[in-house]
Amino acid sequence: xxxxxxxxxxxxxxxxxxxxxxxxxxxxxxxxxxxxxxxxxxxxxxxxxxxxxxxxxxxxxxxxxxxxxxxxxxxxxxxxxxxxxxxxxx
Length: 90
Fold this sequence. Notes:
Radius of gyration: 12 Å
Strand order of the largest sheet: 5-2-1-6
CATH topology: Rossmann fold
Strand content: 25-35%
C-alpha cells in the first residue's frame, strides 16, 4: 500500500515509521532541516516502546512528486494547508 504522511513531525513520524516498519510504501513529506536529516540519516523514532529506524526513508518537500497513493495522512497545520489545493496531485 502506498501512503503519504504529510507533516513528518512527532506524530506523523511515529505513524509513518510504524506503517513503514509494517512494510507499507510510505513517503514522508517534511521541510527544511528535518527533511535534510531524514534524507541523510533516515527516520529514527525513539520512545518507551523502543526504537524504529527507517533507512532509507523516502522523503520529499514536493507533494506533487509523490504520485498516486492509496491513503494520505495530513498530520500538521502545514500538512492540512497543502493537502486541500494539492489533493488532485495525490
